[in-house]
User: Which sequence fits this backbone?
């Protein structure tokens, strides 16, 4: 283990987006901050690597970053000067169907609505106000529980969003409209008849219109590298290859922030937490995991629907009913024969990711936590269903099961990429029911991972608010 | 030369010449020239409080203005883009290296009870940026750089402040009397004015970094040039001075 | 976003002293380049950083701002920052911005190294 030099005002354990956000916030406030990271590469779930063949850059974890672009914290940082460049495909999302044209999510509310036929007005009515006020809504959603600064807007959001996605989809009459809602809501990792799955559909749809669904040129690693570079420009230090197994592994500092989930925090703190807090952490619920595939292709995906080639992300799940069944199955401990697949084809719009004429593909489906069955065939069958000839273009593939994901990033417990279930109860009581959820009973020890509000996603707000708590209390 | 009638000597590459003491050669109608004449320039290394770097920026959509156009407009309208109720008496010929401008401000002082009289000098100017540096006694010791460049598909227009509170009194005001928020308001208003000039309502991005949290206790003596104290004394005394002057004038008549 | 027009080269001249050769334009866009060079020198154990401005072609006010923030970082880690090779033009700028009161300036690299060792 690398020696951690003493003298820092604050130490952050974990270099994922939340850990780095916390570190940057503390460094911005003038403090000397050290980040320690167990892996040899920095970034947690925001890293890239050549997983298949030389010259093919794959995003190991997060690939499409609308929350990163919209983040009330990240978007004010000078990351563009540090090498971050957002790539915006013409369409954020395509959702092909077996029959008829695909549902398309464009940057424009009007263009999206126009493509939904009879659902044109419904889409405008539902999504329009949120798309116009995406900044205000984002700031409210990406914050811990507090009194709203935009009560009218958020009342409207709650009225629509607190419901199951089934209720929201019921407003739409066309297959395209309903399928679009299903795919967006499925990002919640909840069954579509459970609250607040509709909120995820509204949020992701709103962000598509507000900031797009962009991704960093060169890979998600470029986002992390820009963040680290900015952090270092503020005097911060990053130390990789350093696993923290106990509170005593770290030198004394005024604050220590842990970008880890409750399970790891319990191990690190050993018996130092009081019984009631330990019990709450122990009862913390992890959600479904993911089974992930990365491909090196000999050419672009041969979509049946040509519009799919306009989109950075493609949802492969068919109708609303199919997607709903797929998500329900996961919560019943199984995976549907035709699972809902989330696919990204960044290299179509970013030529730095693959050699000339070749392409990369990133794809995953939801699985029960810790699932061990290989789903390569099922995922490829789903892709083949909407892109006949896809398999013929595969040069190489890289498989990551939930266990593989957890090995690469200990925070992905059982393959859970959100740091815990994001249902109504646990969304605002993560990881415990406390006024300041980032504060632990131990003086100067804070949690800053996605197991705190506002939960999963590359937005850094968990880290930001944890840092704010540390600034108020310890620094 | 606060009205631009005479060009001060410049170095090449947009920089002003160093001056041992700032000189105001002409005071425009209505301006109060206090705390500027005979003062040294004071940068972020000469201040008292923690050092802050604050960056306020907007991105004008593509096709709105080039960086050169944005800066030209900003220089030409700098006085008009200032916070309402405050006055920036800039030179008529635009902002050139070596120009000195007077600032009479109510907004800079928390509570608005005091009309602060201070000034700045243009230390650098080119087609896409210009920098104002403060004089001794100004609420903050440092400089503000206004710049523009192409970024994110549009034109980024930015005001970046690098400063320390000048002395213990101003540091108290920054920390406890809303001084930082006032600072934010001034530059956010200016940027909004630039955007509005081009018919754009762009969101303002604000990045605030505490570059050095240490207080430079050795600079506590800066309080002897505190422009707020001197402006306050002037405000108290000036009615009597004006009365006396009027009486003397009528006696001569 | 304009590309940085600054190139740097880090040379370790003694165990404790590193020289950063600055070539090109020191503007706001040089932030990362300058920071990376400083980090490289510091990670290699340098306690004194000498900025060699022999090949500096241009510096605007944002470039001066970078030097101020670099100085703060150097002071925080109890290192020293010196300069050499400044032309008369840039010495004037240091005087105007009062940077000369905080950063030692020397004619040649040898002078700066000697000052660092004394």
Assistant:
């Amino acid at each position: 283990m690398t020696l951690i030099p003493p003298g820092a005002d604050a130490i952050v354990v974990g270099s994922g987006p939340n850990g780095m956000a916390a570190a940057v916030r503390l460094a911005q406030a003038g403090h000397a901050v050290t980040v320690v990271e167990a892996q040899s590469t920095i970034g947690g779930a925001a890293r890239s690597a050549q997983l298949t063949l030389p010259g093919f850059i794959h995003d190991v974890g997060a690939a499409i970053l609308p929350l990163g672009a919209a983040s009330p914290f990240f978007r004010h940082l000078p990351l563009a000067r540090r090498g971050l460049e957002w790539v915006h495909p013409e369409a954020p999302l395509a959702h092909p169907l077996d029959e008829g044209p695909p549902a398309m999510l464009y940057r424009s509310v009007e263009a999206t609505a126009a493509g939904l036929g009879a659902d044109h007005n419904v889409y405008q009515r539902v999504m329009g106000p949120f798309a116009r006020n995406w900044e205000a809504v984002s700031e409210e959603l990406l914050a811990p529980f507090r009194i709203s600064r935009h009560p009218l807007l958020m009342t409207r959001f709650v009225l629509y969003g607190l419901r199951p996605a089934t209720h929201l989809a019921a407003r739409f009459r066309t297959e395209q409209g309903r399928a679009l809602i299903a795919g967006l809501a499925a990002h919640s990792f909840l069954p579509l008849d459970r609250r607040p799955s509709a909120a995820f559909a509204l949020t992701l749809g709103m962000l598509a219109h507000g900031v797009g669904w962009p991704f960093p040129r060169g890979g998600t690693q470029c986002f992390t590298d820009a963040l680290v570079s900015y952090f270092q420009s503020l005097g911060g230090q990053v130390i990789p290859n350093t696993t923290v197994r106990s509170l005593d592994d770290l030198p004394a500092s005024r604050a220590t922030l842990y970008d880890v989930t409750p399970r790891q925090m319990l191990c690190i703190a050993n018996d130092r937490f009081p019984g009631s807090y330990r019990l709450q952490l122990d009862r913390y619920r992890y959600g479904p995991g993911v089974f992930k595939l990365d491909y090196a292709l000999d050419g672009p995906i041969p979509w049946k629907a040509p519009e799919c080639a306009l989109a950075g992300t493609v949802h492969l799940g068919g109708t609303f009913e199919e997607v709903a069944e797929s998500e329900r199955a996961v919560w019943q401990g199984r995976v549907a024969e035709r699972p809902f697949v989330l696919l990204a084809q960044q290299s179509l719009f970013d030529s730095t990711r693959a050699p000339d004429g070749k392409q990369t593909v990133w794809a995953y489906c939801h699985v029960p936590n810790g699932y061990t069955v290989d789903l390569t065939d099922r995922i490829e069958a789903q892709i083949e269903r909407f892109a006949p000839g896809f398999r013929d273009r595969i040069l190489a593939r890289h498989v990551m099961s939930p266990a593989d994901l957890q090995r690469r990033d200990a925070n992905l417990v059982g393959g859970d990429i959100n740091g815990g279930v994001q249902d109504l109860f646990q969304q605002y009581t993560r990881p415990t029911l406390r006024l300041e959820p980032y504060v632990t009973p131990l003086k100067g020890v804070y949690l800053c991972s996605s197991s705190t509000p506002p939960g999963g996603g590359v937005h850094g707000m968990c880290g930001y608010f944890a840092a704010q708590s540390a600034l108020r209390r310890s620094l | 030369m606060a009205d631009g009638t005479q060009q001060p000597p410049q170095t090449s590459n947009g920089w002003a010449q160093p001056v041992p003491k700032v000189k105001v050669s002409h005071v425009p109608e209505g301006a109060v020239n206090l705390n500027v004449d005979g003062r040294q320039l004071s940068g972020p290394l000469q201040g008292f409080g923690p050092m802050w770097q604050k960056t306020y920026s907007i991105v004008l959509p593509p096709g709105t203005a080039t960086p050169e156009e944005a800066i030209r407009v900003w220089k030409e309208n700098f006085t008009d883009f200032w916070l309402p109720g405050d006055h920036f008496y800039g030179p008529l010929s635009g902002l050139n290296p070596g120009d000195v401008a007077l600032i009479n401000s109510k907004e800079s002082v928390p509570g608005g009870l005091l009309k602060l009289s201070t000034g700045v000098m243009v230390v650098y100017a080119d087609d896409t940026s210009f920098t104002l540096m403060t004089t001794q006694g100004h609420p903050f010791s440092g400089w503000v750089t206004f710049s523009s460049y192409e970024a994110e598909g549009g034109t980024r227009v930015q005001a970046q402040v690098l400063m320390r509170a000048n002395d213990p009194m101003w540091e108290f005001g920054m920390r406890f009397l809303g001084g930082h928020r006032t600072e934010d308001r001034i530059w956010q208003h200016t940027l909004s004015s630039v955007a509005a000039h081009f018919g754009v309502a762009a969101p303002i991005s604000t990045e605030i970094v505490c570059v050095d949290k240490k207080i430079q206790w050795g600079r506590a003596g800066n309080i002897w040039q505190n422009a707020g104290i001197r402006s306050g004394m002037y405000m108290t005394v000036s009615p009597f001075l004006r009365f006396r002057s009027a009486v003397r004038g009528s006696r001569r008549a | 976003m304009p590309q940085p027009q600054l190139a740097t080269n880090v040379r370790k001249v003694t165990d404790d002293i590193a020289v950063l050769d600055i070539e090109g334009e020191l503007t706001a866009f040089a932030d990362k380049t300058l920071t990376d060079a400083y980090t490289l020198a510091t990670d290699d154990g340098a306690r004194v950083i000498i900025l060699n401005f022999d090949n500096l072609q241009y510096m605007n006010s944002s470039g001066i701002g970078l030097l101020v923030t670099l100085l703060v970082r150097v002071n925080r880690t109890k290192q020293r920052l010196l300069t050499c090779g400044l032309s008369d033009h840039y010495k004037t700028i240091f005087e105007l911005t009062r940077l000369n009161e905080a950063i030692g300036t020397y004619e040649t690299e040898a002078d700066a190294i000697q000052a660092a060792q004394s």
Notes: The two ends of chain C are 43 Å apart (CA to CA). Residues 6-107 of chain C form a domain with the Transcription Regulator spoIIAA fold (CATH 3.30.750.24). Chain C has one domain: 6-107. The longest strand of chain C covers residues 48-59.
